[in-house]
TrEMBL record, chain A:
Keyword match Hydrolase: no
Positions in coiled-coil regions: none
CDD domains membership: TM_PBP2
Subcellular location: Cell membrane
Protein name according to UniProt: ABC transporter permease
Transmembrane segments: 9-27, 98-121, 133-156, 168-188, 230-252, 272-298
A Pfam match: BPD_transp_1_N
Length: 311, 546
């Protein structure tokens, strides 16, 4: 296990280096620079700015310095937001995105699994159809439309929740729901089909013939096995919720990291682009690793290490 | 089995508890956010949206309208643009101007910074020189170039000691200008000319990075909270010299960068103002808001225009340029596409500066003249028919609004001139690069005034290689008139020189003006006396709720 994790960590470092390198060079190849604006700067001033930020150095010096900075976890000052460093932006924005993501994942898994189980147990009954209609709607309605829809009805029409912003628990519900709707629907469908498959298995029939109550069968035997595909989905889900929160954060005016992930590119805010990319990459690489490990724990049939000893 | 079920349950519980812990944490700072229903009787709490985090609240580093919006409420320069739109005495209680209009002597009034320090002439000298000093990387330092020696010091050719700003004593500031500058008192209200507390700045170079004891202000409001990318809270300042005129107790400036959400929050009573100048309204909501009679529209000093690249065929020919500029139905474009009550522009300088430009230099939608110019131009270039012209590409930066306008204009040109026009859009920074490099044929651009004077719009086109010309056009006569205007001390004569220069410009037509910008917004009906200047800037100094 330790050997497996060590190997994975090494691969992660290599992936990270590839990501940093590719981002660095693509970013520099894009026309424009952090000082590009409608009202052009006098050339002397621009040269002065370039010198101050080290942009007049040859690319290999800049690249080398950048790699060193990442090692020291110091992403430098933001070009656009003069009052903050990139580390400030991340440490202030990430907790918001993280909470939103966590709440969304929680909602998606809790409601999704519940809907899926109900649908499977009441297969081809009205409960099944209702749950699946909800699921189809959730999958087909994009999150930003869901967001406006929730804002219109739950906030403006009925006044239950505030329209936007991030000031307390009530403020988190609508954005989390909007962000959760698609994965929730997906999880519901996933759970339903794997539950149906599991319920048709011989060991469920055995359990039934042993005289166990249907509740016990569902909880003890069916759900646990039906959860595997859902756990598998958690990796990509974390990725899509983290990177996809941008739109939701914008619509609900949340001070999260998602906005910087996108606007830094149009601002050509080099240090923010790199900092946020590195940060998100690490986050994703780690979450994928965690899912792989969790997978092995839940399903003992999957061995992480030692499977191919003869290699 | 039981153990495993327990671990599954436990992990769910863990997630749940983290989520609950997080939520209760969020509740702690929830107070203050409920000032939403600002419509109540006497509460003087204003809630506005400023869209984004202000990039810098240091007067020397600010260079964008969001930062300007905040600074205008918290800081005060020598002058302030009054309710009538003209500069009034502010930190300067009086001033004298030398006969040649190049030396201004300001008398600083008895005023205090929010920490009790007196505002001195030295604070102005220190702030201006700070911005001019190339070591401080101020991107807007060129706004101070009207001061003698400022440009040389900023580009590193001269010394800061030779810059024409000097604190004669605590309360007297002497400013020497490079040329007579009739709009200088307007400039002293602009944010690059704001002072800062030089004592605090000396002790803490990073004083402007956060709200707190070191962020001292001398304006009507004091910043008490700056939650980056979230909100800024301003409170009425007790130390402001004119605090009796200030009626609002607090201003909450939130940062929501989505026009639909902004309007929803306004409709829900969570905001007192939605739309320009601090925020933005969704374009498709404008017609409905207009029908409901809620939309307020005011013209501002800005021109939306199409630049022609005068260095390549066919736009190296003035008649061809004129043909394209005439063959637009601007009113139809405004009524059906932009829908923001903009004014058709048939001149470069907005009517807020030259009132007669509401009429412009030629009639809108003049297809006959367009065809005549086209004939002449084709003949001069040696073509027999418009279809022989080189393929014409109209460029704009990627945005739905610009795209709709470009499509409408493309259609007008194809219909009326019989030319083939293709559209090309690029991401903003890429686009600016191409336009600055003259790598285009026709390109859209907007120009918003920094101060309310025609020179602001004309001087960009003085030199072909000037940073903001982008058309390759220049004219010695135009340059001569601008040079004369710089030394002319009589205001009327100067205005006439600028108008003559504009006439030359419009006759050569290196750009086709399309419309003059307007500000569109909706506001709480009980909110009164928000001052919107001719440049479209908001001041809340005199605002109050009825």
């Amino acid at each position: 296990m330790a050997k497996y994790i060590g190997k994975r960590l090494l691969y992660m470092l290599i992936s990270l280096w590839l990501i940093v390198t590719a981002t660095f060079f693509f970013m520099r190849m894009a026309p424009g620079n952090p000082f590009t604006s409608e009202k052009q700067l006098p050339p002397e001033i621009e040269a002065n700015l370039n010198a101050h930020y080290g942009l007049d150095q040859p690319w290999y010096v800049q690249y080398g310095e950048y790699l060193l900075r990442i090692l020291k976890w110091d992403f430098g000052p933001s070009f656009k937001y003069k009052s903050q460093t990139v580390n400030d932006l991340i440490s202030e924005g990430f907790p918001v995105s993280f909470l939103l993501g966590l709440e969304a994942i929680f909602l998606a898994v809790a409601i999704g699994v519940l809907l899926g189980i109900i649908a499977a147990l009441k297969h081809n009954k009205w409960q099944d159809y209702t749950a699946m209609i909800v699921a189809v709607l959730g999958i087909s309605v994009p999150s930003f439309i869901m967001a406006s829809f929730l804002q219109y009805f739950l906030a403006i029409k009925w006044g239950i929740f505030p329209v936007a912003r991030w000031e307390g628990f009530m403020y988190t519900v609508l954005p989390a729901l909007a962000l959760a709707s698609t994965p929730m629907a997906f999880i519901a469908r996933l759970t339903r089909s794997s539950m149906l498959e599991v319920l048709a298995n011989d060991y469920i029939k055995t359990a039934k013939s042993k005289g166990l109550s249907s509740g016990a069968i569902t909880v003890k035997h069916a759900i646990r096995n039906a959860m595997l595909p859902v756990v598998t989905y958690m990796g990509p889900l974390t990725a899509s919720i983290l990177t996809g929160s941008f739109v939701i954060e914008r619509i609900f005016g949340l001070p999260g990291l998602g906005a910087h992930f996108v606007t830094s590119i149009s601002n050509r805010d080099y240090t923010v682009i790199m900092g946020v990319t590195v940060f998100y990459s690490i986050l994703l690489l780690v979450s994928i690793l965690l899912v792989d490990i969790a997978y092995g724990i839940i399903d003992p049939r999957i061995k992480l290490a030692g499977g191919k000893k003869g290699e | 089995m039981n153990k495993k079920r327990f671990s599954f349950l436990f992990s769910i519980l863990l997630v749940l508890s983290m989520f609950l812990a997080a939520c209760s944490g969020g509740d702690d700072n929830a107070d203050g956010g409920d000032s939403g229903d600002g419509g109540s009787d006497v509460e003087q709490n204003l809630s506005v949206n400023i869209n984004t985090e202000p990039p810098s609240l240091h007067p020397g580093l600010a260079k964008d309208s969001t930062s300007g919006t905040v600074l205008r409420q918290t800081m005060e320069g020598l002058t302030r643009i009054g309710k009538e739109g003209t500069p009034e005495e502010a930190m300067a209680e009086s001033w004298e101007v030398s006969d040649d209009q190049t030396v201004y002597t300001f008398k600083i009034r008895e005023a205090q910074w929010s920490n009790g320090d007196p505002v001195t002439a030295n604070d102005f000298e220190a702030a201006w020189k700070w911005a001019i000093d190339p070591a401080n990387q101020s991107e807007y330092a060129y706004q101070l170039n009207y001061i003698a020696g400022a440009e040389a010091a900023n580009t590193g050719e001269g010394s800061l000691d030779d810059v024409g700003v000097k604190a004669i004593d605590e309360k007297t500031l002497e400013v020497t200008l490079a040329n007579p500058t009739p709009f200088f008192l307007e400039l002293t209200a602009f944010y690059t000319y704001l002072p800062f507390n030089s004592k605090v700045a000396e002790a803490n170079a990073e004083w402007a990075n956060d709200a707190g004891d070191d962020y001292t202000t001398n304006g009507p409001f004091h910043m008490t909270e700056w939650a980056h990318s979230d909100k800024i809270v301003l409170e009425k300042s007790d130390t402001y010299w004119d605090k009796d005129a200030v009626k609002l107790d607090t201003i909450e400036m939130i940062m929501v960068n989505d026009p639909n959400t902004e309007l929803s929050m306004f409709d829900n009573g969570e905001l007192d103002w939605a739309g320009a100048p601090t925020g933005a309204l969704p374009l498709d909501a404008l017609p409905a808001l207009k029908d409901e009679g809620r939309l307020i529209t005011e013209p501002i000093a800005g021109t939306y225009l199409y630049k022609f690249n005068t260095t390549v065929e066919p736009f190296n020919n003035a008649n061809i340029r004129k043909a394209f500029a005439h063959a637009m139905n601007r009113q139809e474009l405004i009524d059906n596409v932009t829908q923001g009550e903009q004014l058709p522009a048939m001149a470069l300088v907005p009517p807020t500066m030259f009132p007669e430009n509401e009429e412009g230099y030629f009639p809108d939608n003049d297809m006959e003249a367009a065809k005549e110019y086209l004939e002449k131009g084709l003949e001069e270039l040696g073509y027999s028919d418009a279809s022989e012209l080189p393929a014409i590409t109209l460029s704009y930066n990627t945005s739905e609004g610009h795209q709709k306008i470009a499509q409408a204009i493309q259609d007008m040109w194809t219909q009326n001139l019989g030319v083939e026009v293709t559209l090309n859009n690029q991401e903003w920074a890429v686009y600016l690069d191409s336009v600055h490099a003259l790598d285009y044929q026709v390109a859209r651009m907007g120009w918003l005034g920094d101060f309310n004077d025609g020179i602001n719009f004309l001087e960009a086109y003085r030199d072909a290689d000037g940073g903001n010309n982008d058309t390759g056009w220049e004219d010695p006569e135009f340059q001569e008139l601008l040079a004369q205007s710089a030394t002319e001390t009589d205001a009327d004569a100067r205005q006439q020189l600028l108008k003559d220069a504009e006439a030359i410009f419009m006759d050569a037509m290196p750009v086709a003006p399309i419309y003059f910008y307007t500000n569109n917004w909706v506001q709480n009906e009980n909110l009164k006396d928000v001052a919107i200047s001719g440049l479209g800037d908001a001041q809340f100094k005199w605002a109050y709720f009825e």
